[in-house]
Write a structure and sequence with these properties.
Blueprint: E1 2-5, H1 10-21, E2 27-30, H2 37-40, E3 50-53, E4 56-59, H3 61-71, H4 82-104, H5 107-111, H6 118-136, H7 152-170, H8 183-191, H9 194-214
Length: about 220
């Protein structure tokens, strides 16, 4: 198994967490998103991550997670009950569409030297506040977002919450997670997992590598 991408990406880290939670052996291959024809052959939009196993390439993090669940069902990341499965998928989709999207618009300004557009910052902050409050009406922290067991929704939410917090803090915005009362306990619970600790350490190292290369 090979996971292609860059360790600063929340989408890359969603898949990496799944691989670690399922205790699968895999190799990481550093590949930045681009329109390079060699990359487009395996990821047609030039995005990361993409994944290779037994000669097959898969792109899009949700598709990779679904593949991993079928290949290695234990420990499960997709609930077996229809209501819990639907809730986990709903949360994951909501996070991808409504939390990642406004946070990602701030990424260049926060960390990669793009000019600060205060109107764009203010709009993204407003969207994140609204969307986090809406998400609060969907999740069921007991103690994970879709119930008693860790699911793929937690992998998506935790990594994307981290992105949202990082970019907003860097730009002097309020913490978007403040819209979800008690979410700090959940974040601390996730941070206790060995898979999360490994991913966070590797992410910090990847950020240091990128900043050193551009210094």
């Amino acid at each position: 198994m090979k996971l292609y991408g860059v360790g600063i990406s929340n989408y890359y880290n969603i898949v990496k967490l799944a691989l670690l939670e399922k205790r699968l052996d895999f190799e990481e291959v550093w590949v930045a998103p681009s329109q390079n024809p060699a990359l487009l052959e395996h990821s047609p939009m030039g995005k990361i991550p993409y994944f290779q196993h037994q000669g097959q390439y898969i792109c899009e993090s949700q598709a990779i997670l679904f593949y991993l669940e079928l290949y290695q069902p234990s420990p499960r990341l997709y609930p077996t009950s229809a209501p819990r499965a639907a809730l986990a998928q709903q949360i994951h989709q909501f996070v991808d569409l409504y939390i990642d999207t406004p946070a990602r618009r701030l990424l260049g300004m926060a960390f990669f030297g793009a000019p600060i557009d205060q109107a764009l910052v203010d709009q993204a902050e407003k969207e994140l506040k609204h969307n986090m409050a809406a998400l609060n009406g969907i999740i069921s922290v007991a103690p994970y977002l879709a119930g008693e067991q860790l699911t793929h929704a937690d992998l998506a939410a935790f990594t994307t919450f981290g992105l949202a917090q990082a970019v907003t803090a860097k730009l002097g915005c309020s913490d978007p997670l403040a819209q979800i009362p008690g979410i700090g306990v959940y974040m601390e619970l996730m941070e206790q997992r060995p898979s999360v600790q490994r991913v966070q350490a590797d992410q910090a190292a990847a950020m240091a590598k990128i900043f050193a290369a551009t210094a």
